[in-house]
C-alpha cells in the first residue's frame, strides 16, 4: 500500500513500484459501487436535531457495518483510479517528455487527493471495536501513501509536481566527461563509429567507468560529475519534506519518517530497535570485510589514496554509491588461483541476449512450480534501453491491473550483475501474481522487505552446480570446495557491503523528516551517516551546494530504502529455510533449490498471503519462525568470516 503520489508506487491508487511496481485495479465484484456509498456524516447530521445529546452520540458513533461499507467503497475508488494511473506512470517512465510528466503530475495529484481523503475518512472509525481484519484494512488506508499531502487546496498538486520533477531530473541526469578524448569515443559513437551527437554520459555509462577504472583521478572526476545532477533538486526536495510532514501530522504521525516506520506491524520505535538489532547481528562481518578490503586497496593505491586508518574513498569501490563492491573483486580477491565463475563471460559465450536472460530467470521460477509469465509480459515489458528517447532506466517491476498485466522495465546490461537483477525483478512479478486474489488492501508484500527479498532469495541458488544444470558452465569448471572463499568473497562484496548502505539511507531520511537535519545540513548529515555506517568518505571536500543524496535514485524517486536492508536479512533466512526443507546437508552457500516444487509450493503459501496478515505470520508460514534473524547470513559466510579474521588479525581495523 505504500507509495508516493507521483510515481508508480502510489497508493491508495495501489501503485506498487518495485522499484516502480505499478499495481492497479482490482475489479471489485459488484456489490458496492461508489454511488451506493452515502456519507454516514451526511445521514446523521439530518437526524440528530430532535434527539438528546446522548442519543445523538449513539447514533453518530459509526457502526461496524458502516466501516464495512466504507472499506468496500474505498476499494472501489482505489480500483477505479488505479489502472489509468498505472498506465500513465508506465508511459511517463518509458517516455519522459514534458507532456508525460504533466500527465504523471496530474494523476499523482488525483491519487494524493484520494489517498488523503480516504485516510482522513478512515479516522472516523478510530474508536470503534472492529474485527482484526477490518482494523487492518483501515490502518492500511491511513498509511495509504508514503508521501501524504495535507488536506488543503493545492497541497496534493504541489507535492505531485515536485515528485514528478525530481524523478524526471534524475532520470535525465547526464554529465560531460571527456567527450573530446578518443579514449572515450565508444560512448559518443554509434556502432558504425559515427558520432551520436550526444556528448554527455548517462548514469549507465558513468557507472561503467566507476566499475572498471582504476585511475583515482578519473574515478574522482566521474564520481563528482554524476553528483552535479543533484543540487537543482535540493530546494524541491526540502519543500516536499515540508508538505508531506504536514500531511503525516494530520494523519496522527509525528512526521513522515514515523509514518514509514509504522508500516511494520509494530510501534514505530520498536521498528527502529528491530532494525538496529538486525544490523548489530551482521555488523561484525561488515567490519571484517571493510578492514580487509581497505588493506587490499591500500596495496593497489598506496597510503595517500587509501590511508589505513581512514574511511575508504567512496569512488574506489566499483559502484557509483559504494553500495555493493563486487566490481573490485579482482583487486581484493583472496590469494590462490580459483577457477573463475564469471557469469558475464559465460553468458557471452553462450550467446545470451537480454530476452534469454529473462527466459532463464523465468525458468527458475517455473522449476519451482510457478506458472510461466503471460504473453503480455513479453509483449509489454521493456528489456533494452531505447536509443531514441529518455526512459527511467532504473530496473522496476510493475503490475498494471493488479491481475496478470505484470511487466518489468529495465535497461538490461548483459552481465552477471543484471542477470541477478532480472531475478530480483521477476521476484516482484511472481509475488504480485501470487497475491492477485487478495482484496486491494492486501495486494502487497507481508512487509516491503519481503517484496525485495523474493527474487534475491532465488538468486542465492545461482550456484556453480546450478549453472552446470542450465548448461552455462562446464561441469569440469565447477570450482572445488577449496575455492569457496573466492565465491563467498564475491558474494560478500555485493551483499555484506550493501547492509550499512541500506540502513543509512533511511536513517538519513528519518533525520530529514524529523527536522534533525535542516536543508542546509542535508549533505553534511548524509556524509556523517555514510561515514558512521559504511566507513566511506568523499574523494575530496564537497562543494557548498552539494546534495549528494539526490544522486541516488531512491531519494528523488521517493522509494523508502529500509526494505532493501530487511530484504538482505530475509533472503538468507528464506534461503536457509528453503535449503533445510530441501534436505540440504552441505554448506548453505552451495545449496540450490532449483527444480524443487515442494519448496516452491511452501514459498507460494507465504507469497499468496500478500499483506493480509501481520508479517510475522507470513514469515512463520515459510520459515517456522516469527522473527527476522541475521544468523543465516553468519552461517552462509562462516568460512569467509574465519578467513577474514585470520587475514585481519594483525591489522588495525575501524575508522
Ligand atoms: O532498486 C533496486 C531494484 C529495484 S526494486 C533494482 N535495488 C536497490 C538499488 O538498486 O539501490 C535492488 C537492490 C538495492
Ligand atoms: Zn526491487
What does this structure look like?
The protein folds into two domains: 19-145, no CATH class; 173-373 and 419-655, Neurolysin, domain 3, CATH 1.10.1370.10. Helix content is 53%, strand content 2%. It has 27 helices and six strands. The longest helix has 34 residues, at 268-301. The radius of gyration is 25 Å and the shape is globular. The model is unreliable at 1-52 (pLDDT under 50). The protein binds L-captopril and zinc ion. L-captopril is lined by residues 18-19, 323, 395-396, 421, 424, 564.
Domain count: the total is: 2
Helix proportion of residues, in percent?
40-55%
What is the correct CATH architecture of the largest domain?
Answer: Orthogonal Bundle
Estimated structural class:
mainly alpha
Task: Calculate the terminal CA-CA distance, rounded to whole Å.
Answer: 40 Å
Radius of gyration, whole Å? 25 Å
Largest sheet: number of strands, sense, barrel closure: 2 strands, antiparallel
What compounds sit in this structure? L-captopril, zinc ion
CATH superfamily of the largest domain: Neurolysin, domain 3
**CATH class membership of the largest domain:** Mainly Alpha
Detail the poorly predicted runs.
1-52
Strand order of the largest sheet: 1-2
Secondary structure: number of strands: 6
Give the overall shape, derived from the CA principal axes. Answer: globular
Q: Give me the number of helical elements.
A: 27
What is the third-level CATH name, the topology of the largest domain?
Answer: Neurolysin, domain 3
**Average pLDDT number:** 90
The amount of beta strand, in percent, is: under 5%
Amino acid at each position: 500500500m505504500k507509495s508516493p503520489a507521483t510515481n508508480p508506487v502510489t497508493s491508495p491508487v495501489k501503485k506498487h513500484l518495485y522499484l516502480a511496481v505499478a499495481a492497479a485495479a482490482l475489479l471489485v465484484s459488484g456489490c458496492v459501487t461508489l454511488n451506493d456509498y452515502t456519507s454516514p456524516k451526511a445521514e446523521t447530521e439530518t437526524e440528530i436535531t430532535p434527539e438528546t445529546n446522548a442519543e445523538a452520540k449513539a447514533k453518530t458513533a459509526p457502526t461496524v457495518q458502516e466501516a464495512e461499507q466504507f472499506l468496500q467503497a474505498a476499494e472501489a475508488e482505489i480500483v477505479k483510479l488505479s489502472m489509468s494511473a498505472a498506465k500513465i506512470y508506465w508511459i511517463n517512465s518509458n517516455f519522459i517528455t514534458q507532456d508525460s510528466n504533466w500527465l504523471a503530475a496530474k494523476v499523482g495529484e488525483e491519487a494524493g487527493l484520494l489517498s488523503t481523503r480516504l485516510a482522513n475518512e478512515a479516522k472516523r472509525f478510530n474508536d470503534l471495536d472492529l474485527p482484526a481484519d477490518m482494523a487492518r484494512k483501515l490502518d492500511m488506508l491511513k498509511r495509504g501513501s508514503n508521501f501524504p499531502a495535507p488536506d488543503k487546496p493545492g497541497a496534493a498538486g504541489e507535492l505531485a509536481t515536485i515528485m514528478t520533477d525530481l524523478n524526471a531530473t534524475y532520470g535525465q541526469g547526464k554529465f560531460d566527461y571527456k567527450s573530446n578524448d578518443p579514449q572515450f569515443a565508444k560512448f559518443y559513437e554509434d556502432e558504425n563509429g559515427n558520432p551520436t551527437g550526444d556528448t554527455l554520459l548517462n548514469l549507465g555509462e558513468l557507472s561503467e567507468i566507476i566499475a572498471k577504472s582504476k585511475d583515482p583521478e578519473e574515478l574522482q572526476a566521474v564520481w563528482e560529475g554524476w553528483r552535479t545532477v543533484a543540487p537543482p533538486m535540493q530546494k524541491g526536495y526540502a519543500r516536499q519534506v515540508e508538505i508531506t510532514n504536514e500531511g503525516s501530522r494530520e494523519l496522527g504521525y509525528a512526521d513522515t519518517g514515523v509514518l514509514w516506520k509504522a508500516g511494520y506491524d509494530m510501534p514505530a520505535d520498536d521498528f527502529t530497535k528491530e532494525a538496529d538489532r538486525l544490523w548489530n547481528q551482521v555488523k561484525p562481518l561488515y567490519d571484517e570485510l571493510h578492514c580487509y578490503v581497505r588493506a587490499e586497496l591500500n596495496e593497489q593505491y598506496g597510503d595517500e589514496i587509501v590511508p589505513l586508518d581512514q574511511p575508504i574513498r567512496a569512488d574506489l569501490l566499483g559502484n557509483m554509491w559504494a553500495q555493493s563492491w563486487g566490481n573490485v573483486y579482482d583487486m581484493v580477491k583472496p590469494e590462490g588461483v580459483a577457477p573463475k565463475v564469471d557469469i558475464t563471460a559465460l553468458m557471452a559465450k553462450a550467446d545470451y541476449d537480454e530476452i534469454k536472460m529473462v527466459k532463464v530467470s523465468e525458468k527458475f521460477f517455473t522449476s519451482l512450480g510457478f506458472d510461466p509469465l503471460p504473453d503480455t509480459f513479453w509483449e509489454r515489458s521493456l528489456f533494452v534501453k531505447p536509443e531514441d528517447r529518455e526512459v527511467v532506466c532504473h530496473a522496476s517491476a510493475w503490475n498494471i491491473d493488479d491481475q496478470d498485466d505484470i511487466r518489468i522495465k529495465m535497461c538490461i546490461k548483459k552481465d552477471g550483475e543484471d542477470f541477478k537483477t532480472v531475478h530480483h525483478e521477476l521476484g516482484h512479478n511472481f509475488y504480485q501474481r501470487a497475491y492477485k486474489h487478495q482484496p486491494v488492501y492486501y495486494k502487497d508484500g507481508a512487509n516491503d522487505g519481503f517484496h525485495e527479498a523474493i527474487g534475491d532469495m532465488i538468486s542465492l541458488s545461482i550456484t556453480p552446480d546450478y549453472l552446470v544444470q542450465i548448461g552455462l558452465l562446464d561441469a569440469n569448471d565447477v570450482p572445488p570446495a577449496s575455492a569457496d572463499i573466492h565465491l563467498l568473497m564475491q558474494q560478500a562484496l555485493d551483499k555484506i557491503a550493501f547492509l550499512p548502505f541500506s540502513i543509512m539511507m533511511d536513517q538519513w531520511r528519518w533525520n530529514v523528516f524529523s527536522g534533525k537535519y535542516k536543508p542546509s545540513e542535508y549533505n553534511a548529515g548524509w556524509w556523517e551517516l555514510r561515514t558512521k555506517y559504511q566507513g566511506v568518505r568523499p574523494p575530496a571536500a564537497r562543494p557548498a551546494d552539494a546534495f549528494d543524496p539526490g544522486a541516488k535514485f531512491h531519494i528523488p524517486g521517493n522509494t523508502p530504502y529500509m526494505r532493501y536492508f530487511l530484504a538482505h536479512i530475509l533472503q538468507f533466512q528464506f534461503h536457509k529455510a528453503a535449503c533445510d526443507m530441501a534436505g540440504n546437508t552441505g554448506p548453505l552457500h552451495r545449496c540450490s533449490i532449483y527444480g524443487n516444487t515442494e519448496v516452491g509450493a511452501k514459498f507460494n503459501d507465504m507469497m499468496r498471503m500478500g499483506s493480509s496478515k501481520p508479517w510475522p505470520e507470513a514469515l512463520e508460514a515459510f520459515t517456522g519462525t516469527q522473527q527476522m534473524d541475521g544468523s543465516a547470513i553468519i552461517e552462509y559466510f562462516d568460512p569467509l568470516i574465519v578467513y577474514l579474521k585470520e587475514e585481519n588479525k594483525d591489522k588495525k581495523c575501524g575508522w
